[in-house]
């Protein structure tokens, strides 16, 4: 396969430009608000401590799973906005199952992960089913399912928690099923989640599925042109259901590293909002498994480094949200510009190459 | 001819016009001289640069080099408004009319400054219509008009704005033969009143019938200007292509007795509750037979194709060989031997942003050489794409090029190669040479003829009546979702076929 250096360079240039643009806009916002611009950047771009590095890897891997779940849908023009509800419901059910400890030790972990995948898939599958049977836009139904998931989890949490306490959470996972993590960063007091490995597994699965299987071909074909896919014999309804199931299944994994590596139960403090962050990361990473890895690490880096802003610069770390938002908006624009440029460039190149081979023929004619 | 009389004679003179788009030379030293009061035709293959040239003359695009003279004065247009002010008007191939307004309102719309929108406008329209022989009721709604009348409204719009030179971009593409004759009558009327008509076409018989001068463009350059009285269609075509060209006509019949496709009582209801889209359509195609379906577009041909492909729900039986496939999925029908060249290759035939080798898999992704178990066989697909590119002369730098980057003719050759690749029993060819250049058209005809000799059954839908008559062994005429008659392509003329398509008696 030919590797097109110019095309690759342009593809990388788009997110870089978006980040630079976002830094400029954020600086402008800070300056207008009268905040110390220099100190904010020196805090964010300071060298992370070992502890911060572990946190970046941990939250990066979680964001990665979330973005992958969104990306499966995106590749087929399905907007699964419901990853957030899917992973929360899945994490809750898995935490309950793990807390009940029906199986011993590591088997308990595996079983709970399978349950999480199933719950996430079913929750997303509802939206898929509504779409193919009733024509309900998956955007609307997944947003509503997010809301339903919130109340459902709150209700069920109360049912399963110990009575007479304000400390509402599922039973703690038995110690034999808790995962200690990897101490791969020297001098860090904390460990990288064991189940961060799920991100690697999911990445390989995603890449293999989309790029190497007939199913993945059908999925991409449907995303590029539904009419052409139908004419080629793809059953689009089936594709919608199956891709929603896969998307939701991956979403089910999002809570697992946290559950087994940190919180050991599902309670009121379990991290929320990861599903929405995943949408932004998937956009930035362009639904590409490697691109998403960089995007997830970047977002994790910004989140982690901004924690100190309040102390060092007296600025709310919410400023990072502005920056992330600008990155995503500008990168979407930049990708489209690059895409059009590449299309035109390729057409030109093809015309030029054919022109040069055609010349002698014309002389002969 | 002296310089002064030349200037008086000449309505439009284009000298050394050049226009480059990045990497593509659309026009290169184009020279056209259009005499006053004549119909001047501009012919050339698709992509030869005709439309670019006309857009330059109408001020839509600016030339990179060269000069434009109108009535002997050098002009420079930066917008169509400038061109209109200089007396040049253009009628595009796709009409730009408001359906829910009347003829009068459509004509006046945007030109209210000229004669207002009341009685003065009405008088002016009446004047124009009578002097040029246009039979149009100014108070009829445009949505009630046929295609030919709509075209006349477009021309009237241009005249109303004071045009003395009118550019018509492929005006006959949407018309049946009878309407073409009426249009030509109108053009002669315009000419008689001293107007000048520039007429873009690639239908050579029509050009020869109506034009006073014919300028041939090939690959962005003017080849020559010829006198139609001393030129045949074949000579013109050869000037266009730059080489000898084949005709669509088939040789001896290769029809066998084995029925490949048998369609019975196919009916399709309009989900919006309108007239039935298909009613009791029945026909057979035998191996080695090309069955053509003639009809004005929108009379059920597209629905028939989609029904046979399993893309739309339909009542009735469809048998491929001995098997009833009416309840099969599209994928299963394709696997059991239906090849499909869709009418709209961008919508139904290609993934524009995917490389050619992935496009080779489209519609064949469940079969060898593209598949190994649940996985894609990249090696197999790529090797077979190389084969198709070679055998079908798809002009591309590589099989990793995206489909979007290829010209229409090359995209179509790839599709034809792909659909022929799995040795289908039945080929559904819907407008197989629409929008492709003459070279690719000849190649596609050849492939269809070769496959037919080898026993392929072909369902051919086409708006090009010469193609239909030339390739088909049998032609069914389709009108309002029904097959209303069968004609013998050996004896029928395009004119007879054209009247049958509009509902006149089918010639025996």
Q: What is the succession of H and E elements of chain A? A: HHHHHHHHHHHHHHH
CATH homologous superfamily annotation of the largest domain in chain A: ABC transporter involved in vitamin B12 uptake, BtuC
Q: Spans of chain B with pLDDT under 50 lasting ≥5 residues? A: 1-5
CATH architecture title of the largest domain in chain B:
3-Layer(aba) Sandwich
Biggest β-sheet description of chain A: none
Radius of gyration of chain A from CA coordinates = 23 Å
CATH topology of the largest domain in chain A: the name is ABC transporter involved in vitamin B12 uptake, BtuC
Question: Structural class per helix/strand content of chain B?
Answer: alpha/beta
Mean pLDDT of chain A: 89
Q: Estimate the helix proportion of chain A, in percent.
A: over 70%
Low-confidence stretches of chain A: 358-365
In whole angstroms, how far apart are the ends of chain A? 35 Å
**What's the overall geometry of chain A?**
globular
Instruction: Report mean pLDDT of chain B, rounded to a whole number.
Output: 84
**CATH fold type of the largest domain in chain B:** Rossmann fold
Helix tally of chain A? Answer: 15
Quickly name the level 1 CATH class of the largest domain in chain A. Answer: Mainly Alpha
Could you tell me the strand content of chain A as a percent range? under 5%
Helix content of chain B: 25-40%
